[in-house]
Amino acid sequence: NAGVTQTPKFRILKIGQSMTLQCTQDMNHNYMYWYRQDPGMGLKLIYYSVGAGITDKGEVPNGYNVSRSTTEDFPLRLELAAPSQTSVYFCASSSEDLRNEQFFGPGTRLTVL
Amino acid sequence: RKEVEQDPGPFNVPEGATVAFNCTYSNSASQSFFWYRQDCRKEPKLLMSVYSSGNEDGRFTAQLNRASQYISLLIRDSKLSDSATYLCVVQRSPDNTDKLIFGTGTRLQVFP
């Protein structure tokens, strides 16, 4: 199993550009999450999904959108990139039975200039 | 006040030392507690859960003090490979249905 994979690993965006961060998991997990991690800060939940077709906002959803058309994929969309969105983005997944054990992808380092 | 607070460190300890970290949480309704480990520029991984009775996994011991609202992680016989950031994580629901709240982490550096 590859676990949770994320692409790209690194990206530099200009202000106002848009992009999609890809996340895929092959563990058949129903639950998927997007976090951002800023230096010196804890992981903040952006959006999460409890299954295909269902998404919900986390703590810091503004400026982002998500979709969950399949169990495996949970892409995160930035429509109008802003410098405040410079961060490391982690996607994670968990089974319904064991939601406290989240499996994280390797992260995407995004810089907005 | 942050819901989960940790001393950011770094804790610099020699190999073989015993080191302990504490983490405090503000929501007395919190029910489940965990330690995650995050290596430099890597993703977090679950280290261990923290049970009310305390629990041990090899050189690692986790304890919970509900009255004072803190959890602790003790590492005995530190190894160089223990160098990492340790994230304290809290979950509000008892039945594993709520989201995880992550602390900012405590950095440990073990030197030869």
What would you report as the Rg of chain B, rounded to the nearest angstrom? 13 Å
Q: Report the oligomer.
A: heterodimer
Number of strands of chain A: 11
User: How would the global form of chain A be characterised?
Assistant: globular
* Low-confidence segments of chain A: none
Question: Element order, helices and strands of chain A?
Answer: EEEEEEEEEEE
Helix and strand content put the structural class of chain A at: mainly beta
Strand content of chain A: over 45%
Question: Mean pLDDT of chain B, nearest integer?
Answer: 92
Q: Main sheet of chain A?
A: 7 strands, mixed
Shape of chain B: globular
Helix content of chain A: under 10%
Task: Kindly state the percentage of residues in helix of chain B.
Answer: under 10%
Contiguous uncertain segments of 5+ residues of chain B: none
Q: What is the count of DSSP helices of chain A, taking H or I runs of 4+ residues?
A: 0
Biggest sheet layout of chain B: 6 strands, mixed
- The pLDDT mean of chain A sits at 94
Describe the structure.
The complex is a heterodimer of chains A (113) and B (112). With 113 residues, chain A is mainly β. Chain A contains no helices and eleven strands. In chain A, strands 2, 4, 5, 6, 9, 10 and 11 form a seven-stranded mixed β-sheet that branches. Chain A has a four-stranded antiparallel β-sheet with strand order 1-3-8-7, with no helix packed on it. Chain B is mainly beta and 112 residues long. Helix content of chain B is 0%, strand content 54%. The model of chain B has no long low-confidence stretch (mean pLDDT 92). Classes of the chains: A mainly beta (113), B mainly beta (112).
TL;DR of this structure?
Chain A has 113 residues and is mainly beta. Chain A has strands at residues 4-7, 10-13, 19-25, 31-37, 44-51, 54-57, 64-66, 76-78, 87-94, 103-104, 108-112. Chain A contains no helices and eleven strands.
